[in-house]
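[scheduler] slot 2 assigned
[scheduler] job type: sequence-to-structure, two independent chains
[scheduler] chain ordering preserved from manifest
[runner] begin chain α
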Amino acid sequence: MFVCKEYLNRTRPSIAHTSLPDGRALYQACLDFHLSFPMTPQEVFDLGQSEVERITQAMRKISNEEGFGDDVAKFMESLKKRKEFFFDTPVSCERERERERERAVLKFPPFCCLCIFSQIDIQ
């Protein structure tokens, strides 16, 4: 009862930053902090939408090439049954992880964080 009668009555009407005083400026400051170049909230949204569309089109293309037409869900389900996407042994998994680590270090040396490539337990 407390939550319904007292707590909720004192909360703001929206969880959006814009419901706060100077909320738009606060949200822009958050974007400025987290992004590597200046973008407005609308530009971030538009970029996200275009990336979803680009990736969806790429998935449809592969699905078509693999004989599933535009049924991406059916194609994705089929991947779970294809043995070439799974490791046979813990050693083969570790070998592939090491190859990927080496590729990443060569391609992105200043960005490679040791914690990402730390030793893992394979069970």
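[runner] end chain α
[runner] begin chain β
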Amino acid sequence: MNNGIPGPVSWTSGGLALEEFASCLIEKAVRPRHRPHEYRQIRRRAYDSRVSGAFLAGENWNIDHVVVGPGGIFAIETKTKSKRKAPPGVKEHEVGYDGVILEFPWGQNRDFVEQARRNAKGLSGFLGKATGNKVWVNPVLVLPGWYVAPASPPQTPEVRAMPETALVKYLRGQPPSLSDQQIEQIAFQIDQKCRDVSF
């Protein structure tokens, strides 16, 4: 999703990073045609997450955001989809998700999930080459303004899909897997290919 102009790299970091990130996503959901304030640089070293702008994964291809923190590395793809009148008996604000297919009120979508999966795989490959270590990247699909209904019985899909309001809780709920040193190393590598965006 290409939604910015190349510019200097900036990470939002410290204890408020995820809240600011989520607030920007919420504003995008509420006012999708307006550009909210750019991220403020928080100059605070903390054992917390770093949130980047768009990661240039290739020509005409970027990852909307990358989060690096104690709980791991997350490639986040954000997709907005306008709501329309649903058929009788179908909730207009709800999308079903079985780990492969998104069931919107008026039809299915596989592309969003597959794109998020490819993004994470591509970032994992880049970081593996850059660091010399095997790196796992978690794919996340954010659907602002939608309630994501899980499959029954519940599953743990490779690509996690959620509304913007659930993002901070999900990211902070991951068990620690990266040290401060690893976070710094990975953030440095991403800096080389990252760019600021306001969306």
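[runner] end chain β
[qc] chain β: The helical segments are 17-30, 111-131, 167-172, 180-191.
[scheduler] slot 2 released
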